[in-house]
């Protein structure tokens, strides 16, 4: 199964940022990063606009076993386990970052 937006993400679009994003520029960086983690811009998966569709797809994936859900959108490669299923997030990057969770 595949889609553009990931169901879960350990990248920036999922609300996970490096410390440098909070500190640069001072104050504004913290506000911007906090906003993207809690409310989300139009491209962040934490944005409430995506809750209904993300929840529906997630329920389908969790009910079935051995499903691989592939998505783009992030700027790194991630392989995440969700129950008996896997989520693969892959997007274009020029920095070669890879994240994995067991």
Identify the overall geometry. globular
How many helical elements? 3
Q: What's the arrangement of strands in the largest beta sheet? A: 1-2-4-3-5
Radius of gyration: 14 Å
Query: What low-confidence regions span 5 or more consecutive residues with pLDDT below 50?
Result: none
Helix content: 25-40%
> Can you tell me the number of structural domains?
1
Sheet having the most strands: 5 strands, mixed
How far do the termini sit from each other? 20 Å
Features:
single chain; 102 residues; alpha/beta; five-stranded mixed sheet; 3 helices; 21% strand; globular
Description:
The chain is of the alpha/beta class. It has helices spanning 19-23, 28-38, 51-63, and strands spanning 2-3, 68-71, 77-82, 85-90, 98-100. It has a 5-stranded mixed sheet, with no helix packed on it. The longest helix is centred in the middle third of the chain and has 13 residues, at 51-63.
């Amino acid at each position: 199964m595949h889609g553009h937006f990931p169901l879960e993400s350990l990248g920036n679009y999922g609300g996970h940022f490096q410390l440098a994003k909070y500190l640069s520029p001072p104050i504004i960086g913290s506000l911007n990063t906090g906003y993207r983690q809690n409310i989300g811009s139009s491209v962040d998966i934490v944005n409430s606009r995506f809750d209904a569709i993300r929840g529906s797809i997630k329920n389908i994936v969790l009910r079935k076993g051995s499903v691989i859900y592939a998505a783009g959108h992030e700027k790194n490669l991630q392989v995440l386990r969700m129950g008996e299923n896997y989520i693969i997030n892959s997007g274009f990057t020029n920095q070669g970052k890879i994240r994995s969770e067991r």
